[in-house]
């Protein structure tokens, strides 16, 4: 074949040695894309292919501009071995980050470099049929504007809120159209493979594949924003649970007879430690006459800006805003201490708007953990803030494709 479009129908026209060789190329591309540049011996060991066959396959992939040499690895005696990696233009991936009120879309090359501007669309998530059409129009617009051959778009990853069954491509909260899975509907209308994942799980994949949790096996990623999301990588795999809904940390009751949560229960973690709660505390304090520079923003009509301003005020030294974050962090620490004692993670990564407050949130979280978690367990768990900042959602969507796309193609080639 003269291309590497991963087209199932074309590949299934092959037979025997030719088809086997092509599938081997896909497996090599998967390893190089997900794990980074490798030496020939590393690839042989990883994929159980003999050295002569590996050299032949790599040579073919270099000729097709799928793979290129990326420098040299460490020598174990003799000359340094060549490192092979995927070429940046061998394929592309689209990332779609859906929030409740806005959707962001961008395209990345095979080396995870963004090649288009992030396009932002004001789309409110719900279950209306025209909402799906607006999303399809936005995705097709970005693809058309990029000028890329659509067949070289390996797949589309979608990070979104809601109760999501990622295996079957169903969101039970948003874009729920009965028996028709939203991932299948998008794939049918766009013509490329589509994978959906809960936003917190997608962020956990981003940290595990591309971020500060790379090479870790047991990691919790906390998405601290309007709500609280939790993604869990356990024994090196994203943990979904039996129904795909694992990680509903925000709806664990923490306060006896507390405030009513949007899930219908009283005193959930979300009611004492989310961005929504912080905003309510800030507004109440201002209304009660607390001395605070937050008064300057009291007339704002945009909740998003107000929440950012609470954090901004705390970072500027506003004592009332600092106290709000302190109380929030200690409540989070109490809840996280339960997770630490149950799961014994080596790393906890914080992301989202609240993580932008840095030590003003991490310090009280650590204090809450120190108060409620066993010393022998908590001392082996590190807490860090994500390096991705506001781009964590886009990288999460990108990582969703990384996690699924090659296995989908390889499975389809056997049919």
Automatic annotation (TrEMBL):
<dbReference type="Pfam" id="PF00480">
    <property type="entry name" value="ROK"/>
</dbReference>
<keyword id="KW-0175">Coiled coil</keyword>
<feature type="coiled-coil region">
    <location>
        <begin position="111"/>
        <end position="138"/>
    </location>
</feature>
<comment type="similarity">
    <text>Belongs to the ROK (NagC/XylR) family.</text>
</comment>
<protein>
    <submittedName>
        <fullName>ROK family transcriptional regulator</fullName>
    </submittedName>
</protein>
<dbReference type="InterPro" id="IPR000600">
    <property type="entry name" value="ROK"/>
</dbReference>
<dbReference type="InterPro" id="IPR043129">
    <property type="entry name" value="ATPase_NBD"/>
</dbReference>
<dbReference type="InterPro" id="IPR036388">
    <property type="entry name" value="WH-like_DNA-bd_sf"/>
</dbReference>
<dbReference type="InterPro" id="IPR036390">
    <property type="entry name" value="WH_DNA-bd_sf"/>
</dbReference>
